Amino acid sequence: MNPYRTAIFAIAALTLSGCGSHSSSSNNASAANAWSIKTSVNQMTNQKMVYAVDTAKSSIANTYGMKYSPELILACGGAAKKEVGLFISLGNVAVISGDIARNVHPVNIGFDNNTELKWNVSASNNGKGYFFNDPVKLLGKASNAKRMLFQFTTMLNSQQEVVNFDISGTNDVLKKMQCHL
Question: What share of the chain is helix, strand, coil (3-state, %, to 5)?
Answer without folding.
Answer: 15, 40, 40
